Amino acid sequence: MAIGKGPEVVTTYDAKTPLMRREEVIADPLARLERMMEIRHAEQKIRELHEEGLAWGSTHSCDGQEAVAVGIAAAVAPTDHVVGAHRGHGLGLALGLTPEQLLGETLGRSVGAVEGLGGSPHLVETSVGLVFTVTLMGAGIPIAAGLALAAEVQGSGRVAVAVFGDGSVNIGAFHEGLNLASLWKLPAVFVIENNHYGEFSRYDRTTAVEPLARRAEAYDLPWELVDGQDVDAVIAAVGAAVERARVGEGPTLLELRTYRYFGHSRSDRAPYRPEGELEAWRARDPIRILGERLEAVGMVDADALAEIDERCRERIEAAAAHALASPVADPGAMFRHVYPEPNR
Ligand SMILES: Cc1ncc(C[n+]2csc(CCOP(=O)(O)OP(=O)(O)O)c2C)c(N)n1
Ligand SMILES: [Mg+2]
Prior knowledge:
Blueprint: H1 22-27, H2 29-51, H3 66-75, E1 81-85, H4 89-95, H5 99-106, E2 130-134, H6 140-154, E3 160-165, H7 172-183, E4 188-194, E5 197-198, E6 201-202, E7 223-227, H8 231-246, E8 252-257, H9 277-282, H10 286-296, H11 302-324
Parallel strand pairs: 1-2, 1-3, 3-4, 4-8, 7-8
Antiparallel strand pairs: 5-6
This protein binds thiamine diphosphate (TPP) and magnesium ion (MG).
Magnesium ion is lined by residues 165-167, 195, 197-198.
């Protein structure tokens, strides 16, 4: 096993720690790699649980998109606010949602992030900045603008980040949110996670503008097209946009180009994909890109990579077992959290 210090990057990460803290993901490339592997294993496990009939409803895998999730989590401060969308397992885990909370939610168990009442696409953990994952396309955009307005009014110094899919740039809420955020120079960052498909349609068959982030020009916002397979590129771009927002220079629109390895939801086998497209993207797998980069600077070797991967697999298995052994969601709980409950 060889986890060491590379010539250029320093790690403070303790390989024996069972669950990384968010601060480590922010600071340490090895911890980021491990979080990406953990996300991949979680998605794999969730598919298995569905196939075994242990999880119900639909689910949206983010395999292939791990660098987007972890890059965003590493670029924002733990006190910032992040609003995601329905494909939000990776973003949740990256920000510090525990595997038990994710798997519990997916399995409809009371240990889930929202006590098993929301299911896989509805995740909340405000203690790590995950305000929630919103399943109505684009709806997180004006909500993030509102959070940014609140940050400004309260002088909290927080930045609000909205993460949404390529399909959501054609929703009215996208335009309304960007317009007001720009006009009021709100401390917000808008991130298009362009995984190439909105349900069964390629983005370039539904949207006239290329790249999608050029939409920002209509609202006088800066924009950038970013390689979403490269976690370091994501951190650099999101980090710069967060910094601009924090110092009062207003919002930015980013487009992170990535690819989803599986269909839209678990019932979609993605027959509409052109031949060779999936393979071409798998050749630029985000976990492999970071792993090879860390190997090249001597921070890990093949044995260490395999060991980290195995530890992630075990952690996810343990989380699934723990969730399965937990009580199913209490239907009575659905009436809690609807109105403010000051005494709770
Ligand atoms: C307003 C609205 N219309 C339709 C849907 C149904 N729907 C759920 S996901 C989805 C596609 C989303 O595509 P994209 O924004 O690219 O996100 P991705 O699924 O690729 O992560 C659609 C049409 C929805 N959730 N909300
Ligand atoms: Mg999409």
